[in-house]
Amino acid sequence: MSLIKSEREIGLIRESCRLVVETFAFIEKTIREGMTTMELDYEIDRYIRGFGGRPAFKGYKVNGKVFPASSCISVEAEVVHGIPGYRKLKAGEIVSVDVGVEYNGFFGDAAKTYPIGPIDELRQRLMRVTWEALYKGIEQAWAKNRLHNLSNAIQRHVETAGFNIVRDLVGHGVGRHLHEEPQIPNFGKLNEGPKMQPGMVLAIEPMVNAGRADVITAADEWTVVTADKQPSAHFEHTIVIREGEAEILTQGL
């Protein structure tokens, strides 16, 4: 598959991303204290299919394992890939929701962390720093710049704030497949990595832990959890590399 997308392909990815953004607007109005993560996932699935899309994560396979839900919902110490279930959302928690959509044969992908009611200062700052780090990376996403300059900008912002980047998971290309090359680490050395090219479509997604960077995979073989049980936040945008500033296809989360 080509890393460089034509304007026609970008237009189709843009449509997928539009549905992703609209889904997050729906989540904003729907997520609440007391609902189970399974209930939220059901509503997300219904919304996406109601507009002609397909939830990209439902049935996604990795090494023979099949993801059983339409969204990844990760609560508190769950970093990513949380499987929705009977857990009820509680005030004071933070919840990361990751949504991928296939529409007309192309994919869009984004993630956002939500507070459930009032949250403490640590979680507020964790969410804010993760969101800022995403945009620090996007500021470095321009043609001919080295990919790891983007990675390094994310890492520096996070570590300066006293938090830690998850190193076991990365961002990725997006297009006719949900996950394409290149891999996009959220840490790296300046002036390393391939040069970004106009027309590359990338999903940039810092995953930031309040405590140590170490993570483990839960018994369900999907959910990634902080090893020290401290909370984690996750934000993600799908973007297009341009000659100047990157175009954010999932703008409006």
Which secondary structure elements does this structure contain, and how are they paired or packed?
Blueprint: H1 7-30, H2 37-50, E1 54-55, E2 61-62, E3 65-66, E4 72-75, E5 78-80, E6 94-103, E7 106-115, H3 121-139, H4 147-160, E8 164-165, E9 171-173, E10 180-184, E11 201-204, E12 207-209, E13 215-217, E14 224-226, E15 232-234, E16 237-240, E17 247-248
Antiparallel strand pairs: 1-6, 2-3, 4-6, 5-14, 6-7, 8-12, 9-10, 9-11, 11-16, 12-15, 13-14, 16-17
Structure description:
This protein is α+β, with helices and mostly antiparallel strands and 253 residues long. It has one domain: Creatinase/methionine aminopeptidase superfamily (Creatine Amidinohydrolase, Alpha-Beta Complex), CATH 3.90.230.10. It contains 4 helices and 17 strands. The strands form 5 sheets. Strands 10-9-11-16-17 form a 5-stranded antiparallel β-sheet. Strands 1, 4, 6 and 7 form a 4-stranded antiparallel β-sheet that branches. Helix 1 packs across helix 2 (37-50) and helix 3 runs antiparallel to helix 4 (147-160). The longest helix has 24 residues, at 7-30. It is globular. 48% of the residues are buried.
